[in-house]
């Protein structure tokens, strides 16, 4: 199947939002424009075979060097030199340097007046005595290639604008997610709301650990890019899809076979699990809440997308805002009513495809999905106790699915650009694709220009009058990778990871952290052992600061932070330390002699 049909088929079958499709590369229109470029070149006697012969002729450079040194024999015909470049913004320029004795030059001289008026002939200086053999430089003003590149850069400009809109929407969603999750996992939030019971405080701390585990799995999944040596760099769309499924598999309890399950089936499963309601009769004593059996799926949308006239993330963003307006610290019923009303709106909406909903499986699998899908008891989602956590995770999933969809869309259009430039070079033999990709980004496509790069062939050069070399954002960087950096900066730190607060000696949490004068931090137990051993050098930087440490080196702010965000770990470390101290005291008693009962 030809790429043009594949391109349109993928845009349709992957259910790309309508506003994205309208901004995509118009591959068929560009192909028609290439045909016009070929016809125009043939009118000037520059057929593809002739141009390719000129470009592939190894004598061109030698002829050029010989001419510059004045050593060209008057009886030898000089090979032509082809240059193809851009000047004054977007105006392409084809320059052919010919020997006036060549057949190609004779063809150009025989052109009608209407064609010859688009030629600019300049006789190059010649050091030989016979000026009749001086080479001629002819600039050919083509119109169709100007149309081609103008059309292509206009479409790239639209894709840039779409990318900026995506970034704005995604950043807004990340900020809302950060606010909601921060309030959900922050135990201090409840101290200001006296109407909350101890069970709510337990739910707050429980969800803090659930979100921490979710973000830990997210970091380890390396969905869109990896820093590992064996798998470093950005991932393509298919690899990212598999890693996203792997992450969801971990969150949902390791019961799915990612390799054999389609993305639609998996999202249908995830949707059921997100909608499963905790047992309302839970006592809230810290035990895990058991879910009800999920209701049967009566309505399944075959459109596994997030469609909306306001972008694919508007539903998730609206859900988070409704959670905030209902009150993150408000009663549970109000939050659940918000979600219930949201679901009812989806059922009553006759145009369900325009809503950003969690995708479901195709109708052919409805019976299988409704009868087999049951939430896993090991699912992290079912451990959520705060009513705002599930809507937040649903929005987090929408965020990552939107990033995956954006990556697929970007890859598809980058492939289309590569293919259309390759076809342009194949049909015209002008060799533009190796030097066209670095574009100058500007506010208007009419002001864009092509940045100069080292050409692949010495006889095919692209030049520009602009000195700015700025890559086009859509083709030079990954939106998914950029947003992942923002997620790592703004969202992941909401639930600090314990790996960032481990003692470098005992590799457990640095409870009662001692900050040495060299700023390195150790737990008090390890520091005491170092001082007992008479070791004065810091284990990390080797400065003599250990023996100078005393109670003034206790980092009270860090200690408060650890107690707040790692209550289980700090308590366990305290118990462990007390046991060690008790054992040491007992050993001292034993070493002092036998116990005597008076």
TrEMBL record:
<dbReference type="InterPro" id="IPR004331">
    <property type="entry name" value="SPX_dom"/>
</dbReference>
<dbReference type="InterPro" id="IPR017907">
    <property type="entry name" value="Znf_RING_CS"/>
</dbReference>
<dbReference type="Pfam" id="PF03105">
    <property type="entry name" value="SPX"/>
</dbReference>
<feature type="region of interest" description="Disordered">
    <location>
        <begin position="329"/>
        <end position="356"/>
    </location>
</feature>
<keyword id="KW-0479">Metal-binding</keyword>
<dbReference type="Pfam" id="PF13920">
    <property type="entry name" value="zf-C3HC4_3"/>
</dbReference>
<protein>
    <recommendedName>
        <fullName>RING-type domain-containing protein</fullName>
    </recommendedName>
</protein>
<feature type="domain" description="RING-type">
    <location>
        <begin position="503"/>
        <end position="542"/>
    </location>
</feature>
<dbReference type="GO" id="GO:0008270">
    <property type="term" value="F:zinc ion binding"/>
</dbReference>
<feature type="compositionally biased region" description="Low complexity">
    <location>
        <begin position="337"/>
        <end position="355"/>
    </location>
</feature>
<dbReference type="InterPro" id="IPR001841">
    <property type="entry name" value="Znf_RING"/>
</dbReference>
<feature type="domain" description="SPX">
    <location>
        <begin position="1"/>
        <end position="438"/>
    </location>
</feature>
<dbReference type="InterPro" id="IPR013083">
    <property type="entry name" value="Znf_RING/FYVE/PHD"/>
</dbReference>
<keyword id="KW-0862">Zinc</keyword>
<feature type="region of interest" description="Disordered">
    <location>
        <begin position="275"/>
        <end position="297"/>
    </location>
</feature>
<keyword id="KW-0863">Zinc-finger</keyword>
